[in-house]
Amino acid sequence: MRNTLHCPAGVEEPQPSSAELAKFVRDALAENRARWRRAREDRRFLDPVFECLRILKAHAEFSDLPVEDATTLVQSLVPSFWNDLPSETSLGDTADPVSAFLDGWDSVQSPEGSESKLASLIRVAAERVAARPLSSKRFGPRLAKPLYAETRAFLALLEELQLEFGSESFPLPQKLAAEILGCEQTQISRRVRIAMRFGLLRRERKASRSHRRAAEYRFLSPHGSGSQVVE
Fold this sequence. Notes:
Elements: H1 18-41, H2 50-57, H3 60-63, H4 67-77, H5 97-104, H6 117-130, H7 149-165, E1 170-171, H8 174-181, H9 185-197, E2 201-205, E3 216-219
Antiparallel strand pairs: 1-3, 2-3
Helix pairs in contact: 1-2, 6-7, 6-8, 8-9
């Protein structure tokens, strides 16, 4: 539904022209390519269309469209749309951008700018982790057991957050993380303790209720190469 909050009563918000929409789609493609390249440089997984989908779904003309209508619209606005997307993941695996678009459209729940920056980073990190295969040995043999499967996914999320924050520590509000991941806050606390016990996470600053500040952490590579883990 198009936002009409800033329009006079009974007056529909003007629809963007085809030229404006086409420019928006081309800009989304360019930003998607730029983020994909950064992910490739960081050796971080990103499929060919993920960021493009988030940007497109933030626009009122795309937000409520079923995937079939969305594909028709982008092709009509930018005929070269599919050719302008990468044909592989950021890790070099061959990927079909059309299939990635069709599969990913309904699964993107965090359009660009739809929530606080930190909440969006956590949600996007979780979506990226869910979209990729995760080796049981990624974080070392001690965490390769089946009982640590959820912990490994959580560690992959922490790794994504660290890559987003670069050399800085990152805040991790446990209640917010639990809401986004659909679990109890006690589960987040437990996984944080496990990550710290195995030397993969270090708390850099304690939480402060008086200052309403979440604890800050730094993800540590099990391979001793900074915050980045490469399979």
